[in-house]
Amino acid sequence: MAPVPSVRLLILGKQGAGKGTQCARLARHYAVPHISTGEMFRAAEKSGSEFGQELARYMRVGDLIPDELVVAFVVERLQRDDAQRGFILDGFPRTANQADALAKMLDPLEIDIAIDLQVPTEVVLQRLASRRVCRECGFNYGVGVPPKVDWTCDLCGGEVVERGDDTAAAIERRLKLYEKETEPLVVWYLTRDKLVVVDGVGDPDVVTARLIGAVDRRLRRTPGEGTQK
Ligand code: AMP
User: Fold this and answer.
1) Measured by CB atoms within 10 angstroms of the end CB, which terminus of the chain is less buried, N or C?
2) pTM of the full predicted structure?
3) Quick one: how far is CA 216 from the chain centroid?
4) Which sequence positions are flagged as catalytic?
């Protein structure tokens, strides 16, 4: 069997597009770490530190954490040994400043692929309304996998809860910020010939297969050949 290629990949997509679920699967497939800034910040909040509580104040209302704080976290994370072969970035970059900072962090290397995981707003709203997350292992139910009807995690037995920032007001704020701050990055990566568009609607296994197919095709491609997909 051919060895699985390494990849430096990031994923763009609205809240509820299924990024977390799909990135975990891609990370397993390509044997690289799944680096989710949202997970990093939720872990900091859970640690109970003063700093974690400061981050939680932004998250609770759906605001973005200031770029300098986010970038400092990602710089530290990408320097670790396990990220040297590649990584899957989930939830970063979210602003033009962060995209710039990422390009500088990686220089002289670059990101291989920026995926735009597309899901219509009405679908993400439905998914977010039924999203539940395990307090212990962070596994997401309802977004990318079927909704949870009881409150115990199938994987670790932990308590399954609603996410603190899945309130109607915070969801509205996050989607607005996505449109204003993050969506422009689609063009940023398109002009740098890194963009791959993937349809995120449908059965999670089908979406995973679409993603792996699109990534593998792009990795085999020579630069400048073709455009998206
Ligand atoms: P997520 O799990 O990706 O939806 O992120 C949850 C929350 O963490 C967001 O609503 C933001 O408050 C914060 N956050 C995560 N990643 C970033 C980022 N790259 N820039 C700013 N804030 C972020």
Assistant:
1) N
2) 0.90
3) 19
4) 19, 94, 131, 163, 174
